[in-house]
Q: What sequence folds into this?
């Protein structure tokens, strides 16, 4: 549970947002589901037990973000006179389906419930930034706004939009290329944009460096320190490639499903959506130059053997690392989402 995995305080939900609408779906039968004491908003202190704050349903889902943001703002306000660093992880549930907009925003966007949810998200982000400014922490706080995947296209129109191929559940650009905004007044130049490769795992190494921490050297670390790139000391990212695995195969010898290397994307297998269909490219992976073909429509593998060679080199290095440092047996934890 989150309070045993690094959080001093936790307030939020434990599962995907749509989990809390299942009991109101046609055909739901409570006799076929195990009771869950934490089916709703929960809270906990470090080392303590989770407590149910409020059950959730298709009505109360509308207020989850408002409640979580209020907790975050109150926490920031309490730090006004503190010199200790703090960390807030605030994954907002709005724009995940089902869109149940807060009544304050329902019908305000002219773009339906999803548009209302986007408007609400924008408002809540403004509340957090205002709280940082009011607490005098604005210039000494890094804010990162990003996502974990592309839109859930099978929920259209209750989903985002991507100009790229694919969505969540795929390794195409529409599933894995996401916007990411870094804000640090006085340290990060405002308005600067880049299409360099940065992976969410890089946040660990980057912030460890910025905070004066030491990155462990007794194990392989997937994240790469991007502090120099972030602060404008260099124009290029320190990352040359990113890798994606799909499905449940976990043996070290399992090749990656897809690799981004420089401006190229290499697919060994590909899913068009969560449901498929799956394309298996066999011995010769598909290659796309996503700078000139961001829609990944034109397979140029036959003319780009050097890209296949790079893919194979990355694969061999990954296998060697996983053999040297095998994964520890996994423990079952729920997916954590909500506010701290």
A:
């Amino acid at each position: 549970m989150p309070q045993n995995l690094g959080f001093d305080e936790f307030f939020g939900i434990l599962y995907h947002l749509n989990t809390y609408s299942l009991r109101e779906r046609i055909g739901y039968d409570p006799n076929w589901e195990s009771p869950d004491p934490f089916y709703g908003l929960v809270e906990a202190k470090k080392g303590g037990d989770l407590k149910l704050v409020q059950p959730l349903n298709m009505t109360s889902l509308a207020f989850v973000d408002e409640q979580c943001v209020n907790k975050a703002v109150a926490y920031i306000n309490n730090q006004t006179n503190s010199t200790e660093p703090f960390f807030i992880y605030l994954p907002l549930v709005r724009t995940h389906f089902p869109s149940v907009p807060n009544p304050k925003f329902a019908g305000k966007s002219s773009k339906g419930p999803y548009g209302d949810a986007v408007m609400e998200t924008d408002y809540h982000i403004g509340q957090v930034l205002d709280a940082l400014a009011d607490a005098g922490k604005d210039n000494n706080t890094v804010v990162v706004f990003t996502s974990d995947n592309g839109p859930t296209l099978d929920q259209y129109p209750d989903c985002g939009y991507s100009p790229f191929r694919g969505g969540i559940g795929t390794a195409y650009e529409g599933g894995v290329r996401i916007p990411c905004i870094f804000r640090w007044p006085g340290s990060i130049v405002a308005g600067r944009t880049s299409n360099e490769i940065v992976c969410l795992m890089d946040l660990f190494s980057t912030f460890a460096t910025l905070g004066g921490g030491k990155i462990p050297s007794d194990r392989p670390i997937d994240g790469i320190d991007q502090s120099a790139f972030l602060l404008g000391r260099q124009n290029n990212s320190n990352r040359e490639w990113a890798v994606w695995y799909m499905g449940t195969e976990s043996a070290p010898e399992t090749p990656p499903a897809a690799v981004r290397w420089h401006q190229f994307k290499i697919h060994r297998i590909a899913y068009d959506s969560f449901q498929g269909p799956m394309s298996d490219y066999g011995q010769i992976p598909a290659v796309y130059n996503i700078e000139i073909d961001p829609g990944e429509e034109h397979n140029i593998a036959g003319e780009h053997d050097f890209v296949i060679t790079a893919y194979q080199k990355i694969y061999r290095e990954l296998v060697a690392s996983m053999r040297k440092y095998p994964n520890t047996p996994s423990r079952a934890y729920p997916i954590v989402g909500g506010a701290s």
Observations:
- Confidence is low (pLDDT under 50) at residues 333-340.
